[in-house]
Inverse folding.
């Protein structure tokens, strides 16, 4: 049977001369025989290529996952936030994914075959362990696909064109695989030096692979918390028992990035991707923790420190140029300075516009100087050549995504990426490590499980605070953590940090503003979101909201798919509804001006299948859509485990 990369059929894997040179893997099925294939080479190929080379990383990781998770400003992103999709982007990911799965399936099959033959004493110990590693990594890949598209063919990559399975069946299968694989590993086996080079994650430290398997089992179990709580509870409790999970940074599953253009090139490196701060992230961070910017920026230039605004300052009100047709609580405003207080991680992740002497300031794209063009005009009408100029130097402003209509045509500023805080250079220049699972996630998962009344080794508060501590340690912010943990200050959407502080924010608070047209200083009444009108619907400041808010911020920028998963599962954290100055064709339920209360149909739920799947495997496509996706292969079709 001829293999087709879009129908999830296997690709062959040939000889690899050295695991440090993954590019030498030969995918010609005639280039190697079974004796030449090594299990560790196949594992290495899958793990390495699944880092997503710059082409597929831009189309999937950035323009789909990050866009849906609001980890970047959707106005400068790919469009999934407002229900749009690009078929060629989806096909690109789908095709690359088939190669990653082919390699890891080959690793498992090769291990099975070799274990039937003659082996050296070391191979009799190492190959069974490597098989379990391959099974664990395959589960991650299956989860990535299933959480993106909604289904997966469990029997794929076995030389046939299989039917897709339901999300429930896939999740039960993944949980079973993780349990069996982790229990089958012998952690006492010591890998040889040449084998260690073939595992970019853990160098075949099998104890670490057991920790990762148990941590993944916790993650996947929690995904079922709303739809299948009994299964979720039993799987989670079994996984966390004994705390043989990722509890320290040294156990994190992360892959070192590399320069150039390979699968190891950083996922965030494409210079034309702005990586600008979104309004969603900004509203979660503003005020959270109550630590003043004057303290956080004590080593910044005097010019930046002078731009720090008072605590009660809203900004410049420009209602003729900034959309009001959204529930974004800062709608209508441009912020012309530095906020009084903000989550300390904000200044580690993002650079202040105009701070070009900072070594971490990202000047991308490097082939032009637009990063220094921080003055932009707002036009009074389409024929106005004078306009009103805004200078974004040393400011911190964002804008809601969506359809801005006529206001967007008159506003050259709101989506000008260089006038928005952008991701720091060290996340973009391939000098970092991509994180797949970190210690802070283990603790936030335990905190949520404890909150649900499940049996856990830590209390909810203990786990929650440990999650924050580990996140702050990652950003070298340990000196602020005690002050942060004790804070009862609300962020823009009514959530505070302190575990015991669950009092809801007042409906309003008194603020000050500047009228952008008359320059007059005025009073302004700020309205917090109304809890009952949000997608979560229960509270703005309960402990589950705190946990998911902190988990969301801690996972930035490496785990956008996981952030999107929590958002779909719980409706948390708070995401503003896209602006609807004009109708959004791909989001028909969002009527002009009717953005409250929030609805599921205002947010993306999945990635569509590429059109090539329907043409290459029409029977499998139809079965998946009709049986498991309610007959609709659409962005707005919710997954089985998601909020309904």
């Amino acid at each position: 049977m001829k293999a087709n990369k879009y129908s999830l059929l296997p690709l062959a894997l040939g000889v690899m001369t050295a695991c440090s040179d993954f590019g030498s893997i030969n995918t010609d099925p005639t280039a190697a025989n079974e004796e030449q294939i090594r299990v560790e080479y196949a594992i290495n190929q899958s793990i390495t290529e699944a880092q997503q080379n710059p082409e597929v990383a831009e189309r999937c990781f950035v323009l789909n996952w990050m866009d849906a998770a609001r980890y970047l400003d959707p106005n400068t992103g790919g469009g999934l936030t407002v229900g749009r999709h690009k078929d060629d982007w989806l096909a690109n990911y789908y095709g690359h994914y088939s190669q990653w799965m082919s390699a890891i399936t080959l690793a498992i099959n090769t291990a099975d075959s070799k274990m039937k033959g003659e082996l050296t004493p070391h191979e009799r110990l190492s190959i069974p362990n490597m098989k379990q590693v391959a099974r664990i990594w395959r589960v991650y890949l299956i989860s990535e696909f299933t959480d993106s598209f909604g289904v997966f063919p469990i029997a794929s990559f076995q030389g046939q064109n299989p039917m897709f399975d339901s999300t429930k069946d896939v999740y039960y299968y993944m949980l079973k695989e993780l349990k069996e694989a982790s229990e089958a590993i012998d952690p006492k086996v010591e890998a040889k030096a040449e084998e260690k080079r073939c595992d970019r994650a853990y160098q075949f430290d099998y104890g670490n692979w057991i920790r990762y398997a148990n941590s993944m089992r916790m993650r996947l179990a929690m995904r079922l918390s709303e739809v299948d709580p009994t299964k979720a509870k039993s799987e989670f409790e079994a996984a966390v028992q004994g705390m043989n999970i990722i509890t320290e940074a040294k156990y994190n599953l992360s892959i070192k990035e590399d320069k150039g253009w390979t699968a190891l090139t950083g996922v965030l490196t494409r210079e034309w991707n702005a990586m600008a701060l979104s309004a969603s992230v900004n509203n979660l961070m503003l005020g959270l923790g109550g630590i003043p910017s004057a303290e956080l920026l004590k080593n910044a230039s005097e010019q930046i420190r002078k731009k720090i605004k008072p605590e009660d300052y809203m900004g410049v009100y420009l209602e003729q140029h900034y959309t009001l047709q959204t529930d974004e609580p800062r709608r209508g405003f441009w912020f012309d300075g530095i906020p009084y207080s903000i989550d300390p991680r904000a200044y580690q992740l993002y650079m202040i516009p105009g701070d070009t002497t900072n070594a971490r300031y990202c000047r991308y794209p490097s082939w032009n100087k637009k990063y220094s063009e921080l003055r932009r005009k707002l036009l009074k009408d389409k024929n106005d050549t004078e306009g009103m100029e805004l200078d974004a130097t040393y400011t911190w402003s964002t804008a809601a995504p969506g359809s801005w209509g006529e206001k967007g045509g008159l506003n050259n500023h709101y989506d000008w990426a260089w006038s928005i805080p952008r991701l720091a250079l060290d996340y973009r220049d391939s000098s970092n490590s991509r994180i797949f699972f970190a210690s802070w996630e283990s603790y936030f998962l335990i905190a949520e499980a404890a909150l649900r009344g499940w049996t856990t080794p830590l209390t909810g508060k203990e786990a929650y605070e440990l999650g924050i501590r580990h996140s702050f340690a990652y950003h070298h912010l340990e000196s602020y953590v005690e002050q942060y943990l004790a804070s009862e200050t609300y962020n823009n959407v009514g959530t505070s940090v302190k575990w015991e502080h669950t009092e809801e924010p007042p409906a309003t608070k008194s603020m000050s503003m500047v009228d952008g047209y008359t320059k007059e200083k005025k009073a302004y009444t700020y309205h917090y979101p109304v809890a009952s009108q949000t997608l979560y619907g229960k509270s703005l400041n309960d402990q589950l909201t705190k946990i998911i808010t902190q988990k969301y911020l801690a996972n930035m920028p490496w785990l956008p798919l996981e952030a999107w998963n929590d958002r779909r599962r719980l409706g948390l954290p708070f995401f503003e509804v896209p602006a609807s100055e004009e109708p959004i064709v791909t989001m028909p339920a969002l009527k002009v001006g009717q953005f409250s209360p929030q609805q599921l149909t205002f947010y993306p739920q999945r990635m569509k299948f590429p059109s090539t799947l329907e043409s290459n495997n029409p029977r499998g496509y139809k079965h998946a859509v009709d049986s498991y996706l309610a007959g609709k292969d659409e962005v707005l079709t919710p997954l089985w485990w998601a909020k309904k």
Notes: The CA atoms of residues 307 and 337 lie 5 Å apart.
